[in-house]
Amino acid sequence: MVIPTWLVLLTVVGFLAVLVLDFVIVDRRPHAFSTKDATRWVLVYIGLAVAFGLLILSQFGSEAAGQFFAAYLTEYSLSVDNLFVFLVIMTSFAVPSVLQHRVLLVGVLLALVLRGVLIVIGVSAIARFEPLFLLFGLFLLWTAWKVAFTDSSEEPDVQNNGLVRFVSRFMPTHNEYVGTRLTTRIDGVKYLTPMALVMVAIGGTDIMFALDSIPAVLGLTTDLFIVITSNAFALMGLRQLYFLLNGLISRLVHLARGLAIILAFIGVKLSMMGIEAAFGLPLPHIDTFTSLSVIVLVLATTTVTSLAVTRHDGAAEGADSDSAD
Questions:
Q1: Are 231 and 75 in contact (CB under 8 A)?
Q2: How many angstroms separate the Cα of 111 from the Cα of each of 2, 114, 199, 216?
Q3: N or C: which end of the chain has fewer CB within 10 A?
Q4: Smallest Cα–Cα separation from 99: which of 37, 179, 21?
């Protein structure tokens, strides 16, 4: 797919404009994010992604648009599962509620840059050696098994995050927040604040997630423009989704199984493409519409069944809250 220069420039300018607008309107005065605020911004970012997909449809046809929507939904759904880890990180570092949006904003910006590097490497490697599809496919199948059978209640050891420990080696750290500042000076010595460390933890953890999600997207499309933009839209809307789903994440009890099914499906698709490229065997091709349909169906089913199963728990919590008042 040949991308015209005007579309590349429009996309870059659009992303920068939205981020600046978000920073000026939302983050200029740090405050606790309400559910109403989060809902409004989630709808804004989803609307922007849909509008971009329709632009792709008008310029390049249904195949390219289907690839974008499938990649975007895959990235976004995998991100929902990662929000639990973000919640653990915020709790571990005792991030004040008024500073959490700034933490996620900078962490996501860091992840955007680092993911861009990984995406370019992955797409270039596949372009030079298509049998890599098989390796990526087997990796996704292993990841699907791990997601399906790993205890999701087991909390990660955030304080021993490798990237955080690496950064801490080069500068002393302070244990108190100083507003949104990343460093503070005490008795002439510069210290990193917890704000800097939690941003590093968020960005570094997201890179670990990217090792799963990027191969999954490459199973849907290898077009560099679509892979990068679908990742960008998913990441940009992740901050608001965190605040919106903060109290709902624990109710999505079937999400891990749904993500495992999606990863396994894409893993099979990639493996078949890799076998065909490596050995020349004619295997069935799973088209974009089928991939998109499977992703939407699995996400819808796991969300509905999760909320149905935990409906009584949510009602019980609400009753307890009312009685406490």
A1: yes
A2: 26, 5, 10, 17
A3: C
A4: 179
Give the predicted TM-score (pTM) of the model. Answer: 0.76
Whole-number Å distance between alpha carbons of 194 and 206? 18
Rounded Cα–Cα distance for residues 24 and 107 (Å): 17
| Angle subtended by helix axes 5-22 and 224-236, to nearest 10 | 10
CB 244 within 8 A of CB 42: yes
Residue 185, strand partner residues: 190
Residue 250 backbone dihedrals phi, psi, to 5 degrees: -65, -20
**Which amino acid would we find at residue 43?**
L
Domain ranges of the chain: 5-317
- Tell me if 249 sits within 8 A of 90, measured CB to CB: no
- CB atoms under 10 Å from CB of 96, counted, come to 14
Can you name the residues that pair with 192 across neighbouring β-strands? 173, 183
Digit-coded pLDDT (tens) for 130-178: 888 888 889 889 988 987 876 655 555 555 555 666 777 777 777 788 8
Cα–Cα distances in Å, from 80 out to 30, 74, 242? Answer: 24, 10, 8
Q: Is 60 left (phi over 0), alpha (psi -120 to 50) or beta?
A: alpha
pLDDT digit string (tens) for 175-188? 788 877 888 888 88
- What is the maximal distance between C-alpha atoms in the chain? 70
Report the DSSP beta bridge partners of residue 186: 189
Closest CA to 193 of 101, 102, 93: 93
